[in-house]
Amino acid sequence: MAGVALAGCGGEADAPSSKATGLAKGGVEKPVLKLGFIKLTDMAPLAIAREKGFFAEEGLNVTLEPQANWKVLLDGVIGGQLDGAHMLAGQPIAATLGLGTRAEMIAPLSLDLNGNAITLSNRVWSMIEPNLPKGADGKPAHPIPASVLQPVVGKFRQEGRPFKMGMVFPVSTHNYELRYWLAAGGLNPGYYLPGDVGGTTGADVQLSVTPPPQMPATLEAGTIEGYSVGEPWNQAAVKKKIGVPVVTDDQIWHDNPEKVFGLRRDFAAKYPGTTAALLRAIIKAQAWLDADRGRNRAEAVRILARPNYVGADEDVIAASMTGKFTFGPGDTRDAKGFNVFFDRFAGYPFYSDAIWTMTQMRRWGQIPADHDDGWYTAQAKAVYRPDLYLSAAKALVERKVIPASALPQTDGFKPVDTGFIDHVPYDGRKPNAYIQSLRIGLKNGQKVTASGVTGG
Amino acid sequence: MATAFADIEPVVQAEAPVERPAKVASRGGATASRLQQALARQGKALLAPMLGIAVFIGLWAALAPMVQTSLGALPGPFEVAAQGGALFDEWQASNEAAAQFYAEQDERIRAGTQVLAFDYAGAPTFVDQVATSLETVALGFVLATVFAVPIGLAAGLSPLFNAAINPLVQIMKPVSPLAWLPIVTMVVSATVTSADPVLAKSFVISAIVVMLCSLWPTLINTAIGAASIDKDLLNVGRVLRLGAFQKLTRLVLPSALPFIFTGMRLSLGVGWMVLIAAEMLAQNPGLGKFVWDEFQNGSSQSLARIMFAVVVIGLIGFLLDRVMMSLQTLVSRNRTV
């Protein structure tokens, strides 16, 4: 432990920093910063930027502090105890829209693509496993649709028990992915009443919030029958033999955006140099994580396994960070794109990604009323800030730290995407048409009341 | 008036008689019997507790491996001790890393490549968390005492004031720290607006929660102490025509001091318990956060590290109590009017 810490903090960090602090001089208005994170492997860019000295190179003295849950983390950033944080993509959007605590937030950088999975308890797995179609190797054919859960949910209902699953936050990507998967399989995950955070109106499957690191314990306690969470908490279920991951978010929506780096808009406006330096350091860390097809991943796993970062056992973290993903015991498959930090323009904050999140907020009632397509674009442009990303990334291109080809030529909208588990095409320029095209979910003019969906 | 506070009173009375038999015994009797008694005392004071601890550790070592959790078997005393060593090593490694950081920073500043000197921003180690918790409980405890003693004295001296605050005290007293926490968090976050406050917000929040919960034992005991002053003393004071201030400092405070210290001792115990819970929930730096972070880590060493923290929390609570107890006996002995 001691040796690793020294190598990380001292030796390697300082050789480049003595050159680079000169570059950042004058630009950084607030060099001493505290950033929050949740114990998940996708906080890796922050840990790497700290331990590999990328923050120091930009003249920043950064403390990283783990937070108990997403709510505490968000309140920390809004209240100013934290200068910025590893955030769910939906958090800065929801805060700006005023769903939950209202605050003007921005997301100038996307931290990663993919990285989540859905795990079911052993009990439910044993109920669905015999009926799954098998491939040539005798293992279940992927992706596993949620429709296989229908008989189980029906059996639970007959016994008078609700079928419960966990996710990490009402506006989390995990919530929307789990809901997408369930709805694509014909199960209604429930609607949100205006102002409520329960989201169980009309639900076939009741979803509830549990902080990521407590997921395995909550599953083990029998409070929930499955969950949607980031790594390493699916692999932890495999290791502890308490559950089986059935589907990854990459299978639900290929290359979906996951975490973002979020901060207050007034912070970025007051400290533009600091914000740019932070972004440069994080982009460098993202490039380091994906360099040479994952050459550095083993070292990243060792850093993340330290108790002050993710802290789970190395083999558990490595199980998803090194290009493989273990579903059941003995069912380890290639999952090259399970965590993408830099490749495929992973860092660029696409407007179309923000708009997808908002379509799901509308689909499930968190956005209680209809808005025209222009409103969605305007909100996305207020929160997602590719301009900040590009100016930081271009500075790195000029310094030849990253290649120019790593920056996308785009107006912020991805082309029409059909990479979903049910292949429904998504066009970020037409959010209302997309909401109409989804089978389960609120349609134009519909509202949620305590007795169910009305109107439309 | 004393009926409302009656549940606190026995604490003082229970403490006092313990000293008396020992004093009587040491005064008289032959050397042999003194030795015998000393041995017997030693046996009670040292051997019995050691035996108790040994049996506990033995049972722990034997039974822990039989409890299987999803993080492996429950760690026994040796695993816990090993993690204690590991935590100490981490602290040393962090100190070395900090020293190296400062050395290199000084070099850079001398060379002119860095303008500002930074504090080392390493992750807090276990020792740092212990220190943070102790500082927090100290601030909360001092705040509680500063508020509780004057209010308690006023309540003890004026039956009217006492009747006025009694219902409030009775209602506030049983409120859990965790119920206070969201309110205190929001209020402190709203009132402390400076970008770089002298005391960290999280530190202030924890300290105020500790204060709110540890206020009551001191307040109630002080009130009892001030109210139960000997009426003869007050009459003497009247004869000597002591002013209000002199009456307070010469008569009331000295006779109430043992009660005040009993209350403070209870307060510190409550404060320490409250602090750990508040740190766990609010994720404010300290031992509570250490425990929660380790629980979240869920690695194969996590349980042993949490158990080590539990032992340390217990030891610190015990030491704090001993310090307050010796202060209390000191004050009770030198009680003169």
UniProtKB/TrEMBL annotation, chain B:
Taxonomic source organism: Novosphingobium silvae
Ranges where the ABC transmembrane type-1 domain occurs: 130-324
Protein name: ABC transporter permease subunit
TM helices/strands, residue ranges: 45-67, 137-157, 178-199, 205-230, 251-282, 302-320
Topology class, membrane: Multi-pass membrane protein
Short name of any one Pfam family annotated for the protein: BPD_transp_1
Signal peptide (from-to): none
Similarity remark: Belongs to the binding-protein-dependent transport system permease family.
Compartmental location: Cell membrane
PROSITE patterns, per database record: ABC_TM1 (PS50928)
Superkingdom to which the source organism belongs: Bacteria
Biological process annotations from GO: transmembrane transport
Gene Ontology CC annotations of this record: plasma membrane
Keyword list, A-Z: Cell membrane, Membrane, Transmembrane, Transmembrane helix, Transport
SUPFAM superfamilies cross-referenced by the UniProt entry: MetI-like
Main location: membrane
